[in-house]
Amino acid sequence: MTSSGSLIVLSVLGLAASTPLISAQSVTRAEALKIGESFIEHHWQASAKNVKHGKDGAGVDVQTPDRDGGQCNPLAECWVPDAENIGVPYKWGGTDSPQSFSVGVRAGKAAGDVFTDAKRKGGGKTVSGDAVGIDCSGFICRCWKLTTRHSTESLPSICEKLSSTSELQPGDIMNAPGGHVLLFAKWTNPEKTHAIFYEASPFSKTVATELDVTQMPRAGFTPLRYRRIRD
Description:
By secondary structure, the chain is an alpha+beta fold. It has helices at 29-40, 98-106, 117-122, 136-143; strands spanning 27-28, 43-45, 53-55, 61-63, 84-86, 110-111, 131-132, 159-161, 173-175, 181-187, 194-200, 206-212, 222-226, 229-230. Helix 1 (29-40) crosses helix 4 (136-143). The longest helix is centred in the first third of the chain and has 12 residues, at 29-40. It is globular and about 45 Å long.
């Protein structure tokens, strides 16, 4: 996805956490957006050591979404080696905070690991311990300060379903079980047909994306509200 591109529906299941999640029982809408923005606006310095296209130490295939690796969506923003980058790269099964991501990068770990059908089929066995980053449901878990890791399949269990997308408020989500999930940030028109979402894009990084919300239910997305979110 690009910051103003069309929606691409993907099978991106959240998996086991690679780092501990923030401990809290509730979150305000403003806090959720601030956390999301901290991922999107995170600056980090990349090196050639953070590029990985092949097997990690445990035999798990890793494909970082760097500019020259061929794994990044050509319509999305890829990170660049030997340069300062903005936004935390997508990592299948990742739940890193911006801080733990940067620690891993400085230690020479792979910066991200894109989604593939093989990873989806392999589940938790295909999560690399040699890569750092965050996936779509891990991103929501961080934004909501959840103490338990949830996937796109289990997020509905802690949410209320909204009767219409027009009810979306900052900090709510559009979720496709077994697919993708995005954090609602704000409406961009009075008709409430287009909006800005924050997401961990599966072939890119954490970004702010403008979408036509009217098309999302047809693609399997449902508007949900975390039961413990506060105004």
